[in-house]
Amino acid sequence: MKKITAISVVSLLLLASCGGKGKDAASMDYGLEEANEVISYYNTSIDITKKMVDMGEISKIIDYMQKNGKTLVAPVVIRTPVSATDTTALLNPGDCFPPSAADSLKMYYRRFFDVSKRLYANYDTYRDYIKAEDYKDDNYAKGNEICKEEKELAEQIPGLRSQIYALLTPYADKAEEATLMDNPLKDHILAGKALIFEIEKTLELYSPEAKKEDLQAAYDAVNAKKEAASKLEKKADFQSEMSNYDNLLKYVDKFLGELRKQLRDGKFTEDGYNDLVSEYNDVISRYNSFIN
Known about the structure:
Elements: H1 32-52, H2 55-66, H3 84-90, H4 99-131, H5 135-138, H6 141-179, H7 186-205, H8 212-230, H9 239-265, H10 270-291
Helix pairs in contact: 1-3, 1-6, 2-6, 4-6, 6-7, 7-8, 7-10, 8-9, 9-10
């Protein structure tokens, strides 16, 4: 089952061969072992794409560059270590996916890793440039070029994440169906996962430049999933699980409440983003309590 985490997941290098046949997710026929491999790949993908680039940090870096480094303190960047085993696994999806999907995943990840590396390398170059006071020789020409490239690279990260998730999620869903085939809480588990997916899409959209109507549409999508999830039949034989499920929905409501407040104010800030991420982390925690 897909255990979702905002911090880390247990991941492994996928070396086994999958027997699922098909040209797309709908036509794949996963056995239990194969399904678990696909889910492990999915979990690793979620973990690595979040660890490698902190868009909050990148936003601070770009702001620093736009001010020509004229701030009291340069942004402090603490990168989360990423396992080489995990990145190798993502570049080698194996045959649990059709060849075309596997090739696309390799392409997206090569690009994602390259952009991630260049984002932080640019910052190192820029700080050296400011420290050496080379801007006095070119009137910030090189610094402006670095800043321009940094913004262009930063704009690619959300799109690459979306492309990876859009390609991978249908296969993970198909795999999870196989693992949940005889689970009486299957519908509730899938509903919880769908809620989290919509919340993550909302966070991807969020930025100071975000259009209010786009975030309103994202709010409506999360709310619609929540309403559908709340209408699922209660399982009398699973009182503890149902209590945790109801708790999950309450925390989704808290996320929606925070987003609703920001939509009302029409202001989307770094502090606002952090508040939403805090609510999101609580949702993740409640989801994991439900499925355990």
